[in-house]
Amino acid sequence: MEKHEHSEYMRKAIERAKQTMELGHGGPFGAAIVKDGNLIAVSSNSVLKDCDPSAHAEVNAIRAAGKVLGTHDLSGCELYATGYPCPMCLSAIIWANISTVYYGCDPTDAEAIGFRDDFIYRYLENGRQEPSLITFKQLEQDRCKALFNAYQNNNHTVY
User: Fold this and answer.
1) How far apart (Å, rounded) are the C-alpha atoms in residues 119 and 94?
2) Contacts of 32 (CB under 8 A, 6+ apart)
């Protein structure tokens, strides 16, 4: 793929982000998913519009691409994002098997305008040691593990 094609896909993500940002739907985040040189999905952040903290551009694009392609496995797809994916989006990208991501701004750029991406990365890098942020307490491991084992024993799809 030639450089101008990559730029064109990124411009699609930028355009979508600008449109919905101006409508107040969410932040300056857009994403496009491409497979075999074909644009599959273009989405933007819709956190404010949808009242959904998970409605980031990358997650919305992954959901749309999965519907278009009829699969949860987006192997062979590339993702173009206006910002480096936050930890949630990065996890969704990994779960979707997308192995190439092109991004515009990095986490420090997002942090500079008030977003917490870099803070969350630091939290993860520091061994999740910030009790004022969140507390984890394990409960009913035996019952939950039985549920996990039942899934595995019934040869369900692992994704």
Assistant:
1) 20
2) 9, 10, 12, 13, 16, 39, 41, 42, 43, 61, 79, 80
Q: Which residues are catalytic?
A: 58
Cβ contacts of 18-21, under 8 Å, gap ≥ 24: 19/44, 20/44, 20/45, 20/46, 20/49, 21/45
pLDDT of residue 136: 75
Helix, strand, or coil (residue 81): strand
pLDDT digits (tens, 9 = 90+) for 71-104: 999 999 999 999 999 999 999 999 999 999 999 9
Three-state secondary-structure class, residue 139: coil
Tell me the C-alpha to C-alpha distance, in Å, between residue 153 and each of 95, 145, 159: 22, 12, 15
DSSP string for residues in 55-70: --HHHHHHHHHHHHHT
Mean pLDDT of 141-152: 90
For residues 43 and 49, give the distance between their C-alpha atoms in angstroms, rounded to a whole number: 13
β-strand partners of 77: 35
Angle between helices 57-69 and 87-95 (to 10 degrees): 20
CA 84 to chain centroid? 10
C-alpha to C-alpha distance for 32 and 49, rounded to whole angstroms: 19
